[in-house]
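Hey L., structure's done. Input below.
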Amino acid sequence: RPCRPSEAAPSTVRQATTLRVAPLPLAPSRAPASLAARIERRAPAGKSAAQSLAAPAALGVSPAEQQRPLTRSALADMPVAFGGAGDHSAGRILCYGDSLTVGYCRGGVSFEPYGRSLAQRLASTGAHCEVLVCGMSGRTAEDMIRKAESSMVCVAGLRGKGLRRILDEDGPFDLVVIMAGTNDMGLNASDEAIMGNLSRLHALCHQRGVPTISLAPPPAPCAGAQREAKRLHLVDRLGAALAKLPGAVVCLDPAELVPGTVAEHWDQ
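Output:
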């Protein structure tokens, strides 16, 4: 469905929120085999999981209900689960990160987490995965490491558990999607610091036998060419670093999924 934008609260950078991502089929050679196989088995006859994920969701609720933004109260205590319909045999996925993960938009009045859209698209293939979302608006990857064993409150006033707590208390998971580092860039953190903290977040999952997907910081069209050059450099280095980790499935650049030239993908 159309992406709607988000903005990390401590900066003026425009950010995309609801990404149209079909992560598993993009790297079949490194995809978590058990989860990918279960999703493929539930794809409608004649369609692959990738083809089904690219089609409109066919769920038991109206399109308006599927796209209705969420309020703060619905996300006050994260992680929050979407999908599943009581059948988790297709797998459990955790989406963890900052405002981009929780879908912070309209100045924090409402939220459109991409994990909800992911659950809907997977369900349309017959794969009723449970997708949990925890997105801490305004928080950096450094914050997430520092608070991994406890909890934190984001700038929108939402509370969320640290990643280690979620893995240990709300698991097991078949896959974790991590999207962080954008706010670190806004604070002019070095590439080394950002990559180090992101690698530590992925390592927390790998230590528990859970594969990960990385969504790199997205472009910020209004921030200028210098910021984009820095972002592209970070994306390249991050992809190369994560490629060396057996538990990392793939590192995706949101710029390839959510074009910055399409206005409907952005909050403003």
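The chain has eleven helices and 13 strands. The chain has a mean pLDDT of 78.

-- N.
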